[in-house]
Automatic annotation (TrEMBL):
Membrane-crossing segments per the record: 101-119, 139-166, 178-200, 206-224, 236-254, 266-285, 430-451, 457-482, 494-513, 525-544
MF annotations from Gene Ontology: transmembrane transporter activity
Record protein name field: Major facilitator superfamily (MFS) profile domain-containing protein
Membrane topology recorded in Swiss-Prot or TrEMBL: Multi-pass membrane protein
Organism per entry: Gossypium darwinii (Darwin's cotton)
Length: 561
């Protein structure tokens, strides 16, 4: 790999390419050097004697293979072997500076951090809110239904946000969507922090949830469409790391404010300054160049004007001079690619277009991953973390806030491992290995509750195995695949549908957990989750392709056609 999320590139700021690509593609928005003007130094930055390298005699450098030689690449890439054949023999990797990549990633990723923060803060806020001494209110005696609404209010808001954004995603735009999400985060956080009564508190939770729905849709879209293809996996996985960081931050704030009168107000209110920073940051960033091109091809504005805006946006994102020739060439290439995709389909789409043709195949892959992410028990397994650790004799388990911090730190560590390896190992190996580990951990938990109760460390090991395997597979990879698998034509609708699937299945699993636990018992519930995990492993092996190193246009033309 020419680039990975390591410290060294961050210090050097400029990526170098130490290997020669076998077959350079002119990747739209991912390669900004015109092929006729290529110099050997772009491919051999480590070499000093460039004159001895006769690169012009190599057909693999300056010529494409004929379309006929790509018959295999145009077929269905559902199987493992076929998916592996998609690894680019040589997709040309775009030189870029990390300094120009950081901000277009950071500000959208704050939307994920605020989502995670809500999860972490709520765990402490519900304790504070119900305390007669610490709530600072006269309405602290909440019923089970009222407490459930406080806890799940943001989840229902996220579901509503996903529904609302589905028909308007492409007209709204990625940047504008994230600006609205930041505004909703600020309003929700402030309203919740200063709520004089339960009804206002619930309205604040709903507004915050609307922000989550928009942010979890817009952030992966914006990051995927603006970053160089060779680090797309790293950056979108880093967004998952930001969610885990947010959870950990919420736990820390909760642990500091748990004994303060009205501490729940501080827990929820601390999100507002971060949301304000997110909004100001998104205001300073340009729109997604790919979105501008999409609007141009859809006839939603002047082609020339939108193309010029796209060139300026790309120049700013790459830290180059406004309207430079390299950016212009990339935009021209992408415009041709998008026009070609539209010529092969109906000129006008409809609201159900995501369920047709290549978009349906993308939704099966992306929607299937986020569905299995939830129904393998992710919202429920950590419910048993406290009892499991207590049975193993860990004194820290008596303190819920400390336990949460420990689990959060472990999640953070495993997510970082996934971030560091996703653009090196690829998506499929991490998914297959991680989901296999999830299945094993669930069967171990089943065995513990069935006949290994005398060996509590088996349960502890199974719990940590589950958390670790989830964070290197479903956690980051599901959202990465969702952000890159949909065609540009239906990417907005497709991702909003995937977000809706995620939050909807999360709500169902959370709601059904207690009744199922009473009906089946813990051992059989974990057995059920384990069987579902095996089915999800089969799904990954048969249907999920490898997209490592491919541009978004290549994914659309090779995998979905």
């Amino acid at each position: 790999m020419a680039c990975s999320a390591t410290i060294q590139p961050l210090l050097n700021f400029e990526l170098s390419h130490s290997h020669q690509p076998k077959r350079p593609y002119s990747l739209p928005l991912c390669s900004f050097i015109k092929k006729p003007r290529l110099s050997p130094k772009h491919f051999f930055s480590q070499s000093k004697d460039y004159t001895k390298i006769n690169i012009f005699s190599s057909p693999s450098l300056f010529s494409r293979q004929k379309p006929g030689s790509h018959v295999a690449a145009q077929s269905d890439y559902s199987s493992g072997e076929e998916a592996e054949s998609l690894l680019p023999d040589s997709a040309y990797q775009e030189p870029f500076s990390w300094s120009s990549v950081i901000l277009p990633f950071l500000f959208p990723a704050l939307g994920g951090l605020l989502f995670g923060y809500d999860i972490g803060a709520t765990s402490g806020a519900t304790i504070s809110l119900q305390s007669p001494e610490l709530s600072g209110t006269t309405w602290f005696n909440l019923s089970a239904i009222q407490l459930g609404l406080v806890v799940s209010g943001s989840l229902y808001g996220a579901l509503l946000g996903s529904l609302l954004v589905y028909p308007i995603a492409d007209s709204l735009g990625r940047r504008r969507e994230l600006l609205i999400a930041a505004l909703l985060y600020v309003l929700g956080g402030v309203l919740t922090a200063f709520a004089p009564g339960l009804s206002v508190l619930l309205v604040g939770r709903l507004l915050y949830g609307l922000g989550i729905g928009l942010a979890m849709h817009g952030a992966p879209l914006y990051i995927a469409e603006t970053c160089p293809s060779q680090i797309r996996g790293t950056l979108i996985s880093l967004k998952e790391l930001f969610i885990v960081l947010g959870i950990l931050l919420g736990y820390f704030v909760g642990s500091f404010q748990i004994n303060a009168v009205g501490g729940w107000r501080y827990m929820y209110g601390c999100s507002a300054p971060v949301a304000l920073l997110m909004g100001l940051g998104m205001w300073s960033l340009p729109p997604s160049p790919r979105w501008l091109i999409l609007r141009a091809v859809q006839g939603k504005g002047s082609l020339q004007e939108l193309k010029e805006k796209a060139i300026l946006a790309l120049s700013k994102l790459r830290g180059r001079a406004p309207g430079d020739a390299a950016s212009e060439k990339q935009i021209e290439d992408t415009l041709i690619s998008v026009k070609s995709a539209y010529m092969e389909q109906e000129s006008e789409g409809n609201i159900l277009e995501v369920f047709q043709g290549p978009s349906l195949k993308a939704f099966i892959i992306g929607g299937g991953l986020v569905l299995f992410q939830q129904i393998t028990g992710q919202p429920s397994v950590l419910y048993y973390a406290g009892p499991i650790l207590q049975s193993a004799g860990f004194s820290a388990a008596a303190d819920a806030t400390r336990l949460s911090v420990v689990v959060g730190l472990f999640k953070l560590l495993m997510t970082w491992i996934a971030v560091a390896k996703v653009d090196d190992l690829g998506r499929r190996p991490l998914l297959i290995g991680g989901v296999g580990g999830i299945a094993l951990s669930l069967f171990l938990l089943c065995a513990y509750y069935k006949f290994l109760g005398e060996f509590p460390y088996v349960a502890v090991a199974a719990l940590l195995l589950y958390v670790g395997c989830y964070q290197i597979s479903f956690g980051p990879i599901s959202w990465l695949m969702v952000s890159e698998i949909f065609p540009l034509r239906t990417r907005g609708k497709g991702i909003s549908l995937a977000v809706l699937t995620n939050f909807g299945s999360n709500a169902i699993v959370t709601f059904a957990f207690s009744p199922l636990k009473e009906l089946l018992g813990a051992e059989n519930l974990f057995l059920l989750f384990g069987v579902i995990a095996l089915i999800s492993l089969l799904f990954v092996a048969l249907y999920v392709p490898e997209t490592k190193g491919l541009s978004l246009e290549e994914i659309e033309s090779k995998i979905l056609k």
